[in-house]
């Protein structure tokens, strides 16, 4: 379906009031108040601000000279279609405390108060115009505006219009689009998770599998049914359900009418090895007449299959009702109620006593007020050490200190967290230790039930304690099974219905002696019933943070990842948590029009392996099985990284063990990089030394070979020289390296015929006179060279055919002065050349 375009952010300009110059030296009066009355949406956005805006984000209203009362810091406040953006007046940096997404605002109101100042300036400091913003993320922020300006009204009107839009498509996520965080089909991921639970991990689903309905696979005990593929049976259940093999689709249709909102018992986790099952549903419609349903009883009985290897023995069935017993009985008067153990054989009914959504909402509000009152950065601008005579406990009085500490306990938040943890641990223990079947439900089966079954699955299955598994867990037990996120977060739905925002207007004049956040407006019973906002998902994340504190080695992700995930959910920057069911998200086209939170978080991790999302204590080998915390260990504490990050930021930074470990890991990583670099340089140096050593060895071998060759050549030259001298010739070497052979007549018995054939010599000297011939290296034609013919006639190693008997000799290789000489073998035959002529002489 087509998605409407987001409305424009253009608003009408406001009239400027006359500027007023206020004298004084406080932080308020240090501003140039002649320039702070500018409230505009028509002028272009400054270049520096444009770089801070997200894709699709635009400015609606801007005001200058606004003071963040919590920190007494002046700056500029911008209202965009996504958030309140507060920039410091000096550095122009974003102030995190004053920057809050519009969807994360729970309440906002206008107050008037007189800010404290120095004793001599009390009369000079007029009352200020305040805007109080209460966030769902534990922050209470107060912005101060000077009187007789239109800035506060403009900001208030913009927040009123954009915080609670009338249509779902007016949310920022639709204006931002998918961008680079495109969302793949979550139905495919749900089927892949079903395949894993059935032990069919080798199978992989695809969009084609979803469209043609070929995902109805099964194993020995359970199967995947497509009976709800069009959401006709139950509009708040997923398109695919995991049910027992022995139950047909017809029996499923018969059983669904007995449960509230047709949310019949289905399997949400199972163990193929033991056959243990964790199932969920809504309350049965027994009413005051204690009505029964054979189809429902048969379906529940099929959940607890026969124990493996034990004949005719069925496993124990536990039915865990998350509500207090009195609430279950009260619902029976309105057609609901709880099961009876007499109607479900071998069953045991257990009540966990977890309160409803309204109790959780009020509990978190009290905790938020407590943190704001005793925090270092309170919304009234006073530190806890400066309130009530210089100490947060009322001057240090023991009774007042006890009262303040009891305020934390009176909030009830930690008790609620403990109840959810205890119930989940009990369910996990029954399944892990007894291989039992546990059916969990509350009233509608989408709030407390989602908390219990997802937390129990997290304890049972180590896969859910990884990044990939945690995503599968949230998408299965919270999104697919219809937790009403739009109602709990106060967002519009597809039909346009929405929770009524709480706009409390208080007196515009007067003074406040305490934090504005503690001026709560009375609520009627009707407004209490209509407000369905509740921090159910936040409470579940808080429970996981408690488990991560108890088992720091069991989780791949860190507390920082949980906080970032909560911020994404509360800010509505992505569309994953829009609407109240899978059916509504499909009708609204959320998956195609909005970005995906999981892709965004994965990109943060992939960009840096040292990301703060990784738990550096994680060791998968230590916790490969279920986590079964004992009851004594289930003592929750405040989650500093979330509860105290706005009121006590310095304590969060100094007390975060993960941060210290992360810093140590970063330093270790830097040292490891330096070590790797040094080792790489060492390897390069070693390789260079080895290369030089090889070259030196080769040079030595070459030098040794050259020396051997030179010695051999010298010996050959000496031998040939002696041989020639024995023939009556003289051999001389000039300084230029030329060889001079002197031929003289020899008075022997040898005939007068010369030993040499020099008839072709060009020198013209007589045979009996000395003949001087020279062999030059640049003479290329050896055939016409006289010295060559002389040398060939003199060489004793030439055969009659003219071939050399000594081809490996130095004269043949280096073309010495004897190359090409032809010997007169008739004369050599009459000579006696002894071998001693060729003896080596050193």
From TrEMBL:
Residues annotated for substrate binding in this entry: 356-357, 442-448
InterPro entries in alphabetical order: GRAM, Myotubularin, Myotubularin-like_Pase_dom, PH-like_dom_sf, Prot-tyrosine_phosphatase-like, Tyr_Pase_AS
Keywords: Coiled coil, Hydrolase, Lipid metabolism
Enzyme class: hydrolase
UniProt xrefs under Pfam families: Myotub-related
Composition-biased stretches (Low complexity): 506-527
Gene Ontology MF terms in the entry: phosphatidylinositol-3,5-bisphosphate 3-phosphatase activity
Active site: residue positions: 442 (phosphocysteine intermediate)
Biological-process GO terms, alphabetical: lipid metabolic process
Keyword Nucleotidyltransferase carried by entry: no
Coiled coil: 661-695
EC number: 3.1.3.95
CDD domains listed in its UniProt record: PTP-MTM-like (cd14507)
Disordered: annotated span: 1-26, 506-529
Stretches assigned to the Myotubularin phosphatase domain: 184-643
Biased composition (Basic and acidic residues): 13-24
Family recorded in the similarity comment: Belongs to the protein-tyrosine phosphatase family. Non-receptor class myotubularin subfamily.
Protein name, per record: phosphatidylinositol-3,5-bisphosphate 3-phosphatase
Organism: Salvia divinorum
Name of the gene encoding the protein in the UniProt record: MTM1
